[in-house]
Each structure stands twice: as C-alpha cells, then as structure tokens.
Queue: 2 jobs
Job 1
Amino acid sequence: MTAEKSIAAVVVDVVARGTDRPFDYHVPETLRDVIEVGSRVRVSFGHRKVMGYVVRLSGEASYGRLKPILDVMDLVPPLTPELVDLGLWMAETCFCHPITALNAMVPAVLKGRYRRVVRIHPRFAPGTVLAPEEEALIERLRREGERPLETVLAWPGVSRSLIRQLVRERRLLVEERVGDRVTRRRTRWVKPAVSGQALRRALDALPPRALRQREILSHFLDRPEAVPLSRLLASLKAGRSSVDSLVEKGLLQLEEREELRDPFAGRSFEPTSPLPLTPEQERAFRAIVGPLREGRHHRILLHGVTGSGKTEVYLQAIDETLKQGRQAIVLVPEISLTPQMVARFKGRFGPRVAVLHSGLSGGERFDEWRKIRSGEVQVAIGARSAIFAPFSNLGLIVIDEEHESSYKQEEQPKYHAREVAFRRGMAHRAVVVLGTATPAVETIHRAGRGELERVVLSRRVQGRPLPRVDVVDMREELREGNRSIFSRMLQEALEQCVSRGEQAVLFLNRRGFSTFVLCRSCGKVMECPHCDISLTFHRTNRTLRCHYCGYAEPVPETCPACGSSHIRYFGTGTQRVEEEIARLFPGMRVIRMDVDTTNRKGAHEELLGRFGAGEADVLLGTQMIAKGLDFPRVTLVGVIAADIMLHLPDFRAAERTFQLLTQVSGRAGRHDLSGRVVIQTYSPKHYSIDLAARTDTEAFYRKELLSRKQHRYPPFCRLFTLLFSHPDRQAVMQAAFEAARLLKQALSGKAEVLGPVPATIPRMKDRYRLQVFIKYTDEDVAKAVGKVLRYLEERAEDPELLVSVDRDG
Ligand SMILES: Nc1ncnc2c1ncn2[C@@H]1O[C@H](COP(=O)(O)OP(=O)(O)OP(=O)(O)O)[C@@H](O)[C@H]1O
Ligand SMILES: [Zn+2]
Ligand SMILES: [Zn+2]
C-alpha cells in the first residue's frame, strides 16, 4: 500500500516572498514507488514549471484539489531524510529560504536549470498556407524534433516575432523544461556477442589476411570479459573498422558504460600503516573510540600543540569507524587541503576516500559525491561543504583546525560547519572531534562548561621541542635607523638558515601591506567610484582594481585631484618583500605564493612540490601558507608584520592574531632539525602577540575570555548583525532607523540593540550600508528578530532595500 504517499510537501526552487514554506502536491499512482523524502521533483508553480525537493510524504492533504507531481528526477534521491531535516533546521536558524539551504547540500550540477524549448503544436492544422520562412522553420522542427529556444532563434530567417506569431496560430509551442547540469562520462566497451565455440568457428573461417580481426577474436577467446574499446584498440594496435566489421557480423557487441570520474586517476599514493601511538595520542584515541563503540553521540575538543600528531589520531579513529561499518567525514580548511594532507588519507584508506575540494570541476565533484551517496566510499575529506556528505551511517566527524573562520559560510545559508556537525552527530549518534592547536574562544568556553570533553596533546611527537620564538619591536628598528622591511634579527637568522642549507618560511599578512596608490603631493588615495574603499594595485597588468566590485582602471599618470605626477604606488605586499630579499640577499631563491601566483589550477600544488624538493630557500606567502605544511628542512619562520590584524574592527582581532602566530610558528622545526621563529611587530606588548610568543595558551584564553565577558561579546552573549543596504542614502537611513526603533521596542529588557552605524565599508557596489547590532542571550530573541524583519520587508515594498542577517556566537 502506498496511500500514505499520496501527498508530497515540496520546497520549490523559487526564492520570493511567501515561498519560504513547503507546498502540497498530489503524488500520481505511478510515481509512488519511486518518490521518497529527499527526492527531486518537477512541479508546476504558478504558471511555471520548477524543480523542488520533497520534504514530507503523507496521506492527507491540506487543501482539496492539488496539482500533481510531474516527475521524479533521480532514481536515488539526492537527499536523505536526515539531510532534509537538517536543511529545514538550517533555513530556520540562518534566516534563509528552505530552498537555499537544501540547494547548499547537493552538488552544484543538481541545482535546477530552466530552459525553453520550441516544438510543433500537437494539434497543428495541416493544409494551412504558410509563408516560406514559416514553412522552413516547421520543416526543420519536424526533422529535428524539440529544440531549445536559443538554438531556434539562431536559425536563418527566424525571429522572436515569427515564433510569437506561430504560437498564437497554435502551430508551435514554447515550453519550459526543468533539468539540471548533470553530465555523465560514458565510455564504449566491447564484448563477445556469441559463445566461445562460435568465436572459435568464426576465427577458423576468417581468411589469413584479416590479421587484425583474427587478433581481436583470439583476444576474446582468451579473455571473454568486456573491455573498454579504446584500450583494446591500443593494445592490439588495431583500427576501429576491424571491430566494426566484427560487430556487423554479430560476433562482438558494443555497449556504453557510465564511468565515474576520478580526479586522482593514475596517481599512486604511498600506502602507510598505523604508527605506534604516544601515550598522549593513545589517550586521545581511547576518548574517541570509547563512545564510538558504544554508538553514543559525544563531542571532543582535541587540543594538541602543532606537530603533536593529531592527524595520526584521526586516521586511527577513522580506521576503527570503518571496522564498525560506519562512515567518517573529515573537514579541513580549503587552504590546508593540500596534496600533503590528501596523500595522508589516500595513503591510509586508498580508494575508500572521496576528496571534495574547490579545484574539482562540477562533474568531478558530482562523481565524488555519488560515490559517497552510493556507499562506494566510506570517508569524505573536504572543505566546509563536505559536512553535507550524504552518508547514511556516520560514526565520526572530524573538524581539523576547528577555529578557522572559513567554516562559517559568508553567503546564505550562513551556517557554521561546527554547528552542523553537532546536529548531524546527534542524528547519527556519532562522535564529533574538533581538533586544533588554537581552539576558538567559544569552543574553549564550551569545553569549560562541560559541553565538550577536552583532550590535550601537550607535546610534539618524539620529544621534538617547540621552536624558540623571538619578538622584534619594529619601532625600535626604525629608531635605530633600519628602514628595511626586515629587522636585523630576521636578516641574520635568514642568512644563517640558508647558509646551513636549510629552508625558511616567510609569512606576510596580505592586508597589511600598502597595495594602494597615493599622490605624494596632495595625499589623495585612489578609490573605487562605486565603493568607499581604496583600489588595489596590480603590478602584472598595471591596473587598479576594486576587490569588492571588480571595477578596474589603468594606473593614472598624474593625480586626478591635483595634477601632480608624484604618484607613488606599491606592489602587493609579497612582491615588495620579494624585491627586498633580492636586494639584501642576492642569489637567494624564493618561491612566492599569493593570489597572483596561485590562481592557475594546480599552481598551489606545483609550488609546494618545488619547495619540498629543495628548489628554493625561502617560501614567501600570505595566509595560505600559515597551516598544514610539513616540510622537514624548514627551520626558520619569519612573520613580517604580526599586528596588522589587531587593528581590524572585529572583536575577534586578538583571537585571530594569537591563532595565526601560533599556527605559523608551528611550521618550524617539525622534524629532526630544531626550529626558530622571529615575529616582527609594532605592538610587542599586546597580549595576543606576547602570549603566542611564549606559547602560553592557557593564559591567552583566560585573558581573552575575561575581556569578552567585560565587553559583553560572544561567547557571553549572542550577536546579530543586521546589514541594511540601498542605492539611496536617505532610504537606507530611514529603513535602518525604523528597524532599530522597532527592535528596541520589541526586545526591550531582553536584548541590547545598538546602532545603526555605517558598516566597515560604508558603500559597496553603489549601495549605502548601515548596520544594527543586537546582543542577546535569550533564545526567544531570534524569533522576535525574524518577525520584525519580515514585517519590515513586507511593509517596505521596496525591492531595492536589502537586509541581511548574520549571527555570531
Ligand atoms: N606516534 C607517532 N610516532 C611517530 N611519528 C608520528 C606519530 N604521530 C605523528 N607522527 C609524525 O609527526 C608529524 C606531526 O604529526 P601531525 O602532522 O599529525 O601533527 P598535527 O598535530 O596534525 O600537526 P599540525 O596541527 O601542526 O598540523 C608527522 O610527520 C607525523 O607523521
Ligand atoms: Zn594629488
Ligand atoms: Zn568597487
């Protein structure tokens, strides 16, 4: 009986006011066997046909007459019921449309694609008189069948008005088709079409000069199983025609098979076996597998210093997970999804691992995802969105470098992978492990309150010491007449390191260095005409670009404000440092890694490979080299300017600085050679820098928590940031002040409403931007905020007004 599947609640692929709830559809008898919660379906919505996801199946309708589900799009639903549930929860907690949340969980190629097709009207009246161009169009459509509208419009003599005319006369139909962008890779295979005996007879009957055909038949006599056509032809040096004639004779047959793309095809990974664990690692391992074996949801913070062997613990815990027939997800920040990291997982688990990273093509990503959905692989490793890997029996979720800000998505749905992991962990009774040397302040706070178990790895493996860290006060350097980017201490250390034949990593925070263009006569800084932000200088093609809207202009010869020709422009920070190294240390070999040198596919990997092979003395780079790297010959780490991030208007500035410095320092002396770190700064006394240098993690978290408590910031409250934007300054002011007033009224006594104040970038893409902050602890506030926003949206009726909501803590 499938009567309980007669009604489907569908979230449709339409983002508009009023569509943020499921709509009921009737499930025709014929589709009841295939439809499931999580299925993608085609439905009519208004006068359109759209894609949607089934979020509930039942036997009762909320309305009398319902429109039918037109089609179920996949044999296996892309979402599991658990993921559907997760999506609806995300929509609610992230203030986004359910469809936005559901779409975020499937590969991009499955998202709806809509196109219009032209075909001949089924009730086309023959015998009517047609103009020659009409005749030609109809004739061609009759031959070729239904064609996309754009294609038809490109045919000679066809215009929009001609089509409109024929549609009105009921000779043509223009229809909307809903599909996706899925492409499948197919290959041709050949196999015998007859028995071995028949093949033998055919072989005997072939004339001796039909050499290739004889060879092909002998091949199948020895090995009757199917082979890819191209492989057969290559191995026998035969041409396609020989196979074709055997197919024509009915001896062989061709078939198409679908092949899953393998982004790592043809690459071998050195197999590795589990290492004997250190006592600390052993304790961490037991903390994980205990609840894993009991099938109990549990949360663990694995707080281990850099180089303490966290990854080995993950690997062995995953091994245990697989032994129990369950699956594991490992999240790593995109930038540390390095070839080294991938090799460690592939080396241990081989083809049981799917890797999801942004370098894959849409098709490759889809295929990796299907291997997960079908159970062909049991481990998924990837960046943030891999948290949605559609496993059905998760045992373990690992989030490596859990403090990384990239785990929070910046666009809708604005989810945090950590919160999603906890929710999935509960649903599957899985263990969630957050691993890092520098936990997020909120994670430490949660551990302190017993919401997570904290397990510490306090030592590097094999008794390797943590590197010695020196802090250099750059103000002092200037006072003593050193105007170089390099302090004397860093210069000396670099020189010594390289002369010993060892390697150095120099780290530069990209934001820190002047990349803008300045007039030295009047002080004007070149700014984007659409955003209140200075333009960035790009040396390679000598342009000024806006990193927010993409605006570009050539570098001016003279100042647009005063006409002076004393224009000073700076290369990107890393380029400047590279030049300085060339000046100070002629002959030193440098590999530069920044957005400019790594935007080509595979460049990242290639540069790291060359550094690992000893082709350079210095690796110079931005954030992207801060973590995950493990090179035995690196003994010096230099931080060019540590305090840049401290001055960002962000309550996490100190936390981020501490984390970054600790992580970069961790790159030095990880193997037999001992390491050294030099941190250059203008604020050596700041606790985030001082305590990072002294590796006094506990003191840092104590101090930071105290400061957050005093200033009332997360984790001691939760924070909403509402961003209002509009092309008109007056309109945005009005909306933001009105919202703040309403919110203060609605939340009085329950939350603190601050603002509106101009956003950090007060104008972007020609839109003025204001922010309102809400600090609260009471969960009901979230609902009230949602209500006020909806009210404002509905009342404003101004399509130009955009409000975005961001939740923190
Ligand atoms: N039990 C062990 N015995 C010997 N070597 C080990 C052991 N565990 C890990 N190692 C080695 O120690 C090095 C550091 O380990 P790993 O990279 O796992 O540390 P980590 O804590 O993940 O580091 P980070 O957070 O700094 O990236 C690696 O080269 C690893 O192979
Ligand atoms: Zn000027
Ligand atoms: Zn701009």
Job 2
Amino acid sequence: MSASEEQRQQLRRISTQLSEILDSSQTLGGSDKELAEIETALSKLNSKMTALRDRKLLEFYNPDFAGDFRNILPCSPISGYFNPIAPDLRIWQEQDRVYAEGRFGKIHEGPPDCVHGGIISAVYDQVLAFAALANELPSLTASLTVKYRKPTPLLTPIRFTTWLEKRKDRHIIIHGECHSGDMLLSSAEGLFIMYKKNSTGN
Ligand SMILES: CC(C)(COP(=O)(O)OP(=O)(O)OC[C@H]1O[C@@H](n2cnc3c(N)ncnc32)[C@H](O)[C@@H]1OP(=O)(O)O)[C@@H](O)C(=O)NCCC(=O)NCCSC(=O)Cc1ccccc1
C-alpha cells in the first residue's frame, strides 16, 4: 500500500512532532506530577502507534524526489523527512555537487554543545553517497575517513559540500567538507563501490 498525498503530509507532521519531542527529552525538567503526566500521555500515544505499526505506507526508495534529496530515502535515519532522528538539514544538488545545510540540535550532542562525531560521520556517509548518485554512480560505502578539525557546534548553521574526486571502474572516491561560515570543521573521504551489474547488464 502506498501513501496518499494527504497521508504523506500527515506522516511528515507526525515525524516533525516526534522530532521535537526527542529534542525536548534531552533537556526535560519538571515536578514529579508534570513528568508523570508526560509519561502517561506518551504511554497512551505509544499504544496507539504500536497498534498501527505494521501498515507501512512509505516506500524505501522514492525516484520522484524532485531535487530534494531528503525525499530519496524517506525513512533514512540521516536524511529522511519521515525519520524523527534525522537532523534538520536541507540537502540539494548543484551541478555535480551535493550540499547539506542546517543545524543540529541537542538530540545529536556529543561533547558539550557540540555534535557527536558519529553523527557527523553518518551525515558524511549519506551525503557522499548522494554525491555518487548525483553523478549517476549509485554505490555503497566501502570505507569512510573523517578528519575532525574543529568541534562542530550545536544550534549553529553548518554546511556540508561533497564532490566526486575520482572514478576507476567500480571504485569511486568522493570527498566532502563541513564548514561553519568560513571555518573548516571537518573533511571526509569515502571509497564507494558501484553496485554490480546483473547478468542482463543492468
Ligand atoms: C558492495 C561492497 C562494498 C563490495 O562488494 P562487491 O560488490 O561484491 O565487490 P567486490 O568485493 O568484488 O569488490 C569490488 C572491488 O572493490 C574493492 N573493495 C571492496 N571493498 C573494499 C574496501 N572496503 N576497501 C578497499 N577496496 C574495496 C575490491 O577489492 C574490488 O577491487 P578490484 O575490482 O578487485 O580491484 C561490499 O563489500 C559490501 O556490500 N560492503 C558493505 C557495504 C555497506 O554496508 N556499507 C554501509 C552502508 S552504505 C551507506 O550507508 C550509504 C548509503 C546509504 C543509502 C543508500 C546508498 C548508500
């Protein structure tokens, strides 16, 4: 079963709500009574959602992403609009480069007030893979090296830039950089291996 436009919009709004709930959970405080009320409300919501959980409406891959890379893998934990843990990034292509821009919130904190290194790596993994796709070289990550130059601040505009560095047969090298303003925060190199052609040559 696939989602109607109305259902897509509803699911997107639900994901946004859940995302805000997750973010709030990181700095939550209140009296015993207030926390108990939240626990009860969430428990009810949880039961309702559990009852509907095996009726997935969203596809794994959306070829009609219309230039918005957050639509390609709707439930990706890094880029999917419908996954509440995905960071709030805009991801798009210009010529053969893919860019991601946005801010990370408390849910992605590693060192105090900074983004967790694993989250930064995960974003590189996804946006470098998108750069391969943008160059019509769909592939999987074989290895990923990230150089962390400066801590990546939370709640601050950050921009990732990625580009195809080299291709030889099925081996693809993609590079990426992450900046806050003019400051280089980190860089990455990924080796991607293109999907094998099947026996029909596709
Ligand atoms: C697919 C492949 C990487 C390669 O296997 P096959 O196709 O069977 O190819 P084969 O083994 O025949 O090798 C071909 C050539 O490549 C070379 N080579 C291979 N590996 C390495 C290496 N590590 N390092 C260096 N070289 C390596 C190998 O020597 C050979 O070289 P040759 O031609 O003789 O000179 C496989 O190991 C695999 O599935 N790994 C797990 C991948 C995975 O889970 N990644 C994480 C999830 S993806 C993600 O999250 C991003 C994403 C999100 C959403 C959407 C899209 C992307």
